[in-house]
Amino acid sequence: MPGKVLRSLRYAPLLALLVIQAATAQDKAHLSIDASKPGPTIDRNLFGQFAENLGHGLYEGIWVGPDSTIPNTRGIRNDVVTALRELHVPNVRWPGGCFADEYHWRKGVGPAASRPATLNSTWGGVVDSNAFGTDEFMDFLHQIGSDAYISVNVGSGTPQEAAEWLEYMTAAAPTSLEKERAANGHPEPYKVRFLGIGNESWSCGGNMTSDYYLSQLKIYSHFVRNMNPAQQDKDKMVRVAVGPGFPETEWTEAIMKGWQHHDWAWDFNALSVHWYTTANGWPVSTPSTGFGLDDYAKVLKSSLFIDEFLHKQEAAMDKYDPKKLVALSVDEWGAWHAPLAGTNPAFLVQQNSIRDAILASLTLNIFARHADRVRMANIAQMINVLQSMILTDKEKIVLTPTYYLYKMYVPFQGATFIPVNFDAGMYTHGAVTLPRLDAVAARDASGKLILELTNLDPVKPLEIDTDFNGFAPRFATGQTLTAAAVDSVNTFDAPNNVVPRPISPKIEQGKLKFTLGPKSITVIALEQ
Ligand code: AHR
């Protein structure tokens, strides 16, 4: 007994501290949502995907071939198509990435048996059967209901090769290439919504200087034409120029300065930037599973840098394009962790935890706050590579926490940004301090107000109290994504560890009241 008393006395100061903390720590947050001050449209193309010919991203991830025992439609996995349709994927970028600057499209059209086997020198030197080429990619897009974002080869290709590829895809007049496409099973011209003119041309795309790239850009943007009659006046192809993958703005300035003086003969409509969350820099070392609170905090903190990165690039673009005619396209972003043990390191295989879903919510919210300039983005990459939506292993498939996050964010596609003000204090872990809460709101076409709330604190819940201006909520429905641990993942054996659960938030006297669980993402739809 005396021992027990002593022990409780020993812990008394700690208990007192906890009581004081509980009383003083900010476990409540007040949000003000002003629907009377709508902002820009959150372009649906911010929710784009990226499918490079890399590892098992295309082969096995999408393409299993028509003779596979895995259920497929013309060689494309049915389970993957079903899952992706739910995400309303607006566009898919293909064939790269670095791979784009070594891709020669002619090797991937025509009867499968006559396509040459080539080496994928960028990603592991593996043999590529070229079975998944242009017509298969377009079929995949047709099946999932998405638009094409084609990256043409500037590094090792020619303007003629790229121009002929576009003619093959888009010509309606009876040219030889149009007839070839028809003979390959597609008489109707394809729609090419986005054209990437090179990829990371300052590095894997040819190690070019900005001046050299600018002259290439002028040539490609003139000669690589979209001939689809349906894309001449409206629905015009968006030409995307290569921008930087680093915060410095010299490259952006050089390209935008060139653009400022463009004439009728050349132009582009978006500048691509790439930014990955690597936390410890390169080579990547953060594990994608089996980590604790240190890595949780460090990776999330690191992911927030994209906000500063975008501000810098936008300021450089504003100098030459104050009317924001040229969009920013963040067409590669996401968490890049260490490759999973036992996998080919060139295949960039990683698991995907609740932390990655939170990272995606924070990043998409940043994009929404930059929506006046950032009008496209593509998470890297769609299946089996980096921060993917889906993992597959032969006939098995699992949907990742990031997949579910994208599904929860569908209502934000094309919605109108609505400002939210809040202060929920900070979450501190060791030397890392992060905002405790993130939130973003938007109004969809039917008038619903969509509110997203992320509680970054991995331990403490947060009580939310929200008032509205210009909107009188009466009904609320929602979903929350959370998990048992910061490194919780979905696996082939346990696919439902991290899945959204329905919630019923209360509305009392016009205020929304709800408690956010720790490390959670919540999306609520409010109706008047
Ligand atoms: O997404 C993987 C690679 O990262 C892409 O191929 C390249 O563009 C970037 O460096």
Helix-strand layout with pairing:
Elements: H1 2-24, E1 28-34, E2 48-50, E3 72-73, E4 76-77, H2 78-85, E5 91-94, E6 118-120, E7 126-128, H3 134-144, E8 147-152, H4 159-170, H5 176-183, E9 194-197, H6 210-223, E10 238-242, H7 250-260, E11 270-277, H8 293-303, H9 305-320, E12 327-335, H10 354-369, E13 374-380, E14 390-393, E15 396-399, H11 401-408, E16 416-418, E17 420-422, E18 426-429, E19 432-435, E20 437-443, E21 449-455, E22 462-469, E23 475-481, E24 501-503, E25 506-508, E26 511-516, E27 520-527
Parallel strand pairs: 1-22, 2-5, 2-13, 5-8, 8-9, 9-10, 10-11, 11-12, 12-13
Antiparallel strand pairs: 1-17, 3-4, 6-7, 14-15, 16-20, 18-19, 20-21, 21-27, 22-26, 23-24, 23-27, 25-26
Helix pairs in contact: 4-5, 6-7, 7-9, 8-10, 10-11
The chain binds alpha-L-arabinofuranose.
Radius of gyration: 24 Å
Q: What is the count of distinct domains? A: 2
- The end-to-end span amounts to 61 Å
- Number of beta strands: 27
* Average predicted confidence as pLDDT: 94
